[in-house]
Amino acid sequence: MTIIETLRPALSGIGAAASLANGFLFVTAANAEGQNNQPTSAPADKATALPPVEVDAPVAKRRRAPNAGAKQASRPVSASHPSKPAEPRPQAASSAVSPGNSLQRTTGLSRLSDSLQSTPQTVTVIPRLVIEQQQAATINQVLQYVPGITVATGEGGGGINGDQFRIRGFDASGDVYVDGLRDFGSYVRDSFATENVLVLKGPSSQSFGNGTTGGVIEIESKKAHLGDQSTFEASAGTGPYGRGVLDINKQINDTTALRFIAMGNGQDIVDRDHVYSDRGGFLGSLGLGLGTEQSLIVNYMHQQSVQRPDFGVPVVSAPGVIGKPVTEYGVPRSNYFGRESDRDSATADVATALYKGEFGDWLTLTNDTRVGYYTRDLKFTPALCASPGFPFPSSCATDVLAGNLATPYTIWSVGGTKQVSHGGENVTTATMRFDTGPFRHKLVVGFDAYSQHATTNFYLPSGPEPAGTLLDPIFANSPGFALTVSPGNQLSATSWDAGPFMSDRIWLTPMLSILAGVRWDHYRVDGQAGASPLATTTEFASPKASLIFEPTTHQSYYFSYARSFTPPGNNITSLSSTLGLSQAPSAANLQPEADTTFEVGAKWGLFEDRLGVTAALFRVEKNNASYTDQVSGIQTTTDDKVQVQGVELGLTGKLTASWDIQASYSYMDSKIIASSISPFTPVSAAGNRVPYVSEHGLAIWTTYDIAPLLPNVPGHMLVGGGLNCRSDYYLNNLNSMVIPAATTIDGMLSYDPNDRHHLALKVTNLTNKLTYSSAFGNGYATPAAGRSVTLTAAIKF
User: Fold this and answer.
1) Residue 310 and residue 783: Cα distance in Å, rounded?
2) What burial class does residue 711 get, using C-beta atoms within 10 Å of its C-beta: 0-12 exposed, 13-18 middle, 19+ buried?
3) Cβ(176)–Cβ(217) under 8 Å?
4) What is the pLDDT of residue 152?
5) Which residues, listed in sequence order, are joined to residue 729 by a DSSP beta bridge?
6) What integer pLDDT is reported at residue 211 of this predicted model?
7) What predicted TM-score, i.e. pTM, was given to this entire model?
């Protein structure tokens, strides 16, 4: 502690340039910004799933009582009364079943430690309570109510690269983070260990490193906390579907706790023949120093899964025709076009250590580390419906367009991958709060270093493999058919990244502040593609700048600028083909993708901040764009320049004491500004829409507590559901394949007679709508499950 206090004037001197005109450097603890971001004790009710907003007000040095319970949310001090103490935030009467106004929480990340209301970026929060209400078992199901996100992950885990997301149309396969650290693996992520999910939209390289063109998916994991709390939840439903989660948290002493979570999941997908998804996993968490100024949380997560990958149904592909999935022409959505040997087995073992220290009121240090080991064995036999056909001549598409559905499809001669990967990352961050003359600062400096390695082998089919017809596909393996590892086609690669970063938020006045920062990255990939060595090195700087105006504690306005870069081979566990990475050193059109974003937005807290409202206008421009096919893993080489611009609106919190809502709308106007001719793009795509971008997206999740309206009904009884509307989107830059627009409706009814028991009924796809949960650029679309009913019961003990 003595060393830290001795260094304090020197560290504060980083901001001295801002006050040279005044001739002195002035730092006071009384005016420094405080933080209250330690792990909480056991939640008193479900509302405490969201951590409260940080305190920007003057605070005294403190040490919280170990058994203080959940944190008390508080408001920043009034801008016009800087000495006024922070006041407690009012709590809603029905907070036990309310997710609350998410603008009043933080990201939970040291690199972005302001409240979401003060963060100059569009952020969508899916809190734990909403995840439970929607009974979302995987992360892609959690994200289904976030407009602007499209996925290439079917219910059975389709896609050669596991979870594949696109944010505002831009690939986010390497932009999934857990507790602020990269999740390197290629697998379908179950939500059993998930507390909250945040989607930070817009380029975020300054905070997170390479990639992040469309944004970042941040998963906050469950952790040990003070207080004893145990729950068991069991679900059963159509499919059939069965799931159980046991969650035990035990406080060991005043500052130490242990947590253990176990999960088992078995599911057959409704209205999809032969598709199943079985998973199991557990999370162990140890919390040390909880409720004190220095804490350490250590998590270990294991997940394994065995499932049949669902690449869905072929999309019609023919010259001069905008093709749709064959199910749009009358093929039953239950038809499965893979084979009996199709299998997807994956494991993930991940250990994480999160240290946080608060030294006085001015300095917070964090040191976060993750190491992970992943395996995946994927076998599949995708089908095509193209004319003239690839790789073999076919009349499938022309037959379908002529009304003949009893036509043979083509089996593509690829077979899958077998991959072993591991990676590690460390992020060290210092957050300093100090004054230079009249200006208040929050300075964040840190260093991010990670490495990952992947060894990938490729399966190729051998032996007879006759195709069936669209109406009668062949599922059984033919005698003599096999999928074998292709010799001499192994891809082995190791990547390293080192990135120092810094940002400073300076309050020019109590209402007006500037946030500016930059990160510099050195990224290198070395490896072997078959018999050919490969190597590529990329260096780049990612700046950001924002102007933030907060006239009151209930409203904020901002303008932001940011740049991000995506180097070749930025996520080697997802680049599951020797194509792309092996070309990176020599292909000019696989130079780093560069993108720029401009965003102007506003955030308001209404009804004493019980309801949060957001609005933003944005434009993202990307140069040297490339596309990665989610089935083959082939990285399409293009020189496209693309632009996505639009508006996003959000609503989160309580409309009345009993009525909660989480709603968002996005309008995205996308356009390919420039396009080059290549084997993948034989004609110019200029003027076309950007693939995977829906022009309109609307998502609403709402519940109403009807218990107060019913005589002699204790507790809470929620009636609610969700509406999800999405306009059509294209699968390629030539706009020759399209996924139709769709609107789906979900319904739910839950009853909590007391704080120990919970019962819920959920109906997904209430109208049994034919729609698609994901799509793949090479011509596949996965039909979403038909109407599904799930009953869940939980007990707290």
Assistant:
1) 9
2) exposed
3) yes
4) 57
5) 739
6) 76
7) 0.84
